[in-house]
User: Which sequence fits this backbone?
């Protein structure tokens, strides 16, 4: 496949367009890599360090200055702070409140509540609050702003 | 959004709501008041803008919270409504928007209509966002 690279002057303008006959496993891997970055983050459980792929993360929450990473059924602790993780995560991992980052790909639906905030229902049935001030960034990441 | 920008946006929404309803009331008064048209004094537009700014402050203080349950939300909204009503009635008294009980009740009615208008229009905009976000999520969602 021929690959063309064009340099842009702002991160917001970055995008990748793949023209292909079908979504082969290689292309799906490429999409995953471009959207979520190369890998994952180091997390801790039972004093053991594990590697958590970014695609497995449902949401990350900060509680009393400790950071917890939630997957479908598990919870791990992470040494990084939320603002540090924001730089490591993919474009669909987005801050939804002061204390939480959510993987947009794990959201089943959102519903607006009076007062401007939204409630997101995740694929595992958990509900998280999206603060009003972060809705604009979510729309930007989804390309609807 | 920064605090100053939020105050500006809220001020614009509230001032626009007041001017919008005053415009409608002026039309009704013209066609049903037997020739007595609504008179706008030179200071009325600026006091409407001032009302918008003063109403934006309790809006930020009382409704700009990340986490709240429904009971807290209802209590804050009631407090918010009363705070704004006090601002409007206080400024109305200072600026002579009303001079008799009929005028007082008129200003009160306009206030509650504007209050409902702002909440309903904000919620309608939020629902539009909800629809757009859900449509966009459909395209990127991982398999369940």
Assistant:
């Amino acid at each position: 496949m021929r690959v063309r690279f064009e340099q842009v002057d702002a991160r917001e303008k970055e995008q990748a367009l793949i023209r292909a006959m079908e979504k082969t496993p290689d292309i799906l891997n490429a999409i995953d890599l471009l959207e979520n970055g190369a890998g994952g983050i180091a997390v801790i459980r039972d004093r053991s360090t594990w590697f958590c792929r970014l695609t497995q993360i449902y949401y990350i929450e900060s509680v009393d200055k400790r950071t917890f990473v939630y997957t479908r059924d598990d919870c791990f602790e992470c040494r990084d702070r939320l603002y540090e993780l924001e730089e490591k995560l993919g474009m669909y991992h987005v801050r939804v409140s002061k204390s939480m980052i959510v993987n947009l790909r794990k959201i089943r639906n959102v519903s607006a509540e009076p007062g401007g905030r939204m409630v997101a229902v995740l694929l595992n049935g958990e509900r998280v609050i999206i603060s009003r001030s972060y809705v604009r960034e979510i729309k930007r990441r989804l390309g609807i702003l | 959004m920064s605090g100053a920008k939020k105050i500006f946006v809220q001020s614009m929404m509230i001032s626009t709501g007041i001017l919008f309803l005053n415009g409608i009331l002026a039309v009704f008064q013209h066609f049903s008041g037997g020739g007595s048209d609504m008179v706008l004094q030179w200071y009325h537009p600026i006091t409407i803008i001032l009302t918008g700014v003063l109403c934006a402050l309790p809006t930020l203080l009382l409704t700009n919270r990340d986490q709240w349950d429904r009971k807290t939300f209802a209590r804050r909204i009631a407090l918010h409504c009363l705070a704004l009503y006090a601002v409007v009635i206080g400024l109305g008294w200072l600026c002579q928007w009303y001079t008799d009980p009929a005028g007082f009740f008129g200003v009160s009615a306009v206030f509650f209509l504007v209050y409902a208008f702002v909440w309903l229009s904000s919620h309608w905009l939020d629902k539009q966002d909800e629809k757009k976000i859900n449509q966009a999520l459909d395209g990127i969602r991982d398999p369940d």
About this structure: Residues 18-141 of chain A form a domain with the OB fold (Dihydrolipoamide Acetyltransferase, E2P) fold (CATH 2.40.50.1020).
